[in-house]
Specification:
Oligomer: single chain
Number of strands: 0
CATH architecture: Orthogonal Bundle
Radius of gyration: 14 Å
Number of domains: 1
Shape: globular
Order of helices and strands: HHHHHH
Strand content: under 5%
């Protein structure tokens, strides 16, 4: 159920890049059970609200790429993973595993390795405790 919600959020984040609508509107066309929809809404709203904190973390760790050079899908997988890692109670191992699975299914060929490396580095650096 949560994996389907994460997939829906990823699709919404991708759509948001071209059409910056509120989370409710982005999720309006997504068919999810009530509990999954609530989880998806919380994730989507959280990612969008915390982008100003998440994007610099990606940019600083995407060595040789930078945020703007990352493929859109890969960038949004990282945004979702970092939001969940830094701002929710989901266990870090689960967050990283789920993000890598999204990267395998939807990202570029390099996405699983990049997503794993960046999320693992952020987790090990203890960035969570430094955010206000």
């Amino acid at each position: 159920m949560r994996r389907k919600a994460r997939e829906a959020v990823l699709r919404c984040l991708y759509r948001w890049e071209f059409l910056p609508l509120p989370p409710e509107e982005l999720l309006a066309e997504v068919d999810l059970p009530k509990e999954a929809r609530e989880f998806a809404h919380a994730l989507l709203a959280g990612v969008l609200a915390q982008r100003d904190k998440i994007d610099p973390i990606i940019d600083a760790r995407a060595h040789g790429w930078g945020l703007d050079r990352l493929p859109l899908v890969d960038r949004n997988i990282l945004r979702l993973g970092l939001y969940e890692l830094l701002f929710t109670d989901t266990p870090p191992e689960v967050v990283i595993d789920e993000a890598v699975e999204l990267a395998k299914a939807y990202g570029t060929a390099r996405a699983p390795a990049v997503v794993n490396a960046i999320l693992d580095r952020v987790w090990k650096e203890g960035v969570r405790g430094t955010l206000g």
